[in-house]
Amino acid sequence: MRLDKNTYGTVLLVYLVCVLCIFALWRWLPCWWINLPLTLFFLAVAIWQTYFHMVPDRKPVGDDHLVTAVSDGKVVLVDRVFESSFLKRDVIMVSVYMDFWDLHANFWPVTGTVSFADYFPGKHLLAFKPKASEENEHSCTIIRTKEGKEVMFKQLAGGFARRIVCYARPGMAVKGGEQCGIIKFGSRIDYFLPADVRIRVKVGDLVKGISSIIAEL
Prior knowledge:
Number of domains: 2
Largest sheet: 8 strands, antiparallel
Strand order of the largest sheet: 11-7-8-9-13-5-4-15
Low-confidence stretches: none
CATH class of the largest domain: Mainly Beta
Shape: elongated
Distance between the termini: 30 Å
Number of helices: 3
Helix content: 10-25%
Mean pLDDT: 88
CATH superfamily of the largest domain: Glucose Permease (Domain IIA)
Strand content: 35-45%
CATH architecture of the largest domain: Distorted Sandwich
CATH topology of the largest domain: Glucose Permease (Domain IIA)
Radius of gyration: 19 Å
């Protein structure tokens, strides 16, 4: 694994804050039985944040026919809905919720060309709430495969997420399984897939970015 290139400053800030807190504890609170567990806590936070922002080294299994997981997480929704904002047709919606213990690097779900990409400011509702898909801050990307299939996905901010990084630009050729960005702190990925896809996951499944198959086009 490697540290995501967009998080060097974040991780450095976490380490700096932890070091300052540890220094302050031992400098002004001369109680080792209190300082020791708090020191271990701050060290654990620093290590956790380093892991949280890592990019895993996994073998990609996606192509222009297989939709793979954009992120690690748990499937919380599989349903047929009408996507009224961009696709304007019936689709299969799959939602994957990421908690604080999941790696938050994101990856292209399918091979193709980016036909739409934009960022939308919004609220910071808890990411597992149904309204989060429409009302929360998010980045929206549509990828068109060589056979004309369109796969849309949203990177949603959650109650604690405050930064979404997405590399998508209209006209960009992308390859399934390569990194497309990162979301910092708890959040969610929503997939909007053609209505005739074969879904390969169900609610409650745990998925891994790059290596888990969401659907077959």
